[in-house]
């Protein structure tokens, strides 16, 4: 189960570890600097939620981080992001929304999107996480994705997003959750009404029902 916490560790060296509820997660040296993302693509499978964090600064655009989460955790992630955005707005004011694309402009399909993205071979399988730690400053949000396994929890991906891009991520997650719920509803077996009870048959030569 995914555990979501918004409390950053007060450790003297926060780059070395983060605190997730009552568990301390190590931050490997290769992860500490994190990656900056300017958007995200959200997809879901039967049991997994995949988030590709995209960097669209410079050419070619590329996937900066690929994270795989349990599909059942999506409502918790949505709730955590919403709460953090609300807290951010209370402290720093309303987040400026990015302009939405013109509805008259045809949207590329998913294959066309990835044809124009650089996705390194070493990222194809992504990194699995079953916990996430969310924090923010006035300008950006940080997402520490954690693998919470015995004997040590560890941060597997650290991603930074501008606050306005977090709003877009939230919209994508909500849209994907709605699609998942519709898909599940279609897969539910239709409940059929029970057939009517048979009436007892009677013999033409008797008044008693046949047994």
List the helices and strands and how they pair.
Elements: E1 3-5, E2 17-20, E3 23-26, E4 35-37, E5 39-44, E6 48-55, E7 62-70, H1 74-92, H2 110-115, E8 127-128, E9 131-136, E10 140-147, E11 153-162, H3 163-187
Parallel strand pairs: 1-9, 3-11, 4-11, 7-8
Antiparallel strand pairs: 2-3, 5-6, 6-7, 9-10, 10-11
Helix pairs in contact: 1-3
Would you give an account of this structure?
The longest helix is centred in the last third of the chain and has 25 residues, at 163-187. Helix 1 packs antiparallel against helix 3. The protein has one domain (3-100, 107-186). By secondary structure, it is an alpha/beta fold. Strands 1, 2, 3, 4, 9, 10 and 11 form a seven-stranded mixed beta sheet that branches. It has a four-stranded mixed beta sheet with strand order 5-6-7-8. It has helices spanning 74-92, 110-115, 163-187, and strands at residues 3-5, 17-20, 23-26, 35-37, 39-44, 48-55, 62-70, 127-128, 131-136, 140-147, 153-162.
Concise overview:
With 211 residues, the chain is α/β, with parallel strands linked by helices.
What structural category arises from helix and sheet content? alpha/beta
Radius of gyration: 25 Å
- Say how many strands there are: 11
SSE ordering: EEEEEEEHHEEEEH
Number of domains: 1
Strand fraction equals 25-35%
Number of helices: 3
Biggest β-sheet description: 7 strands, mixed
Can you tell me the residue ranges where pLDDT is under 50 for at least 5 consecutive residues? 7-12
Q: How far apart, in Å, are the first and last alpha carbons? A: 57 Å
Mean pLDDT across every amino acid position: 83
- The dominant shape is globular
Helix content: 10-25%
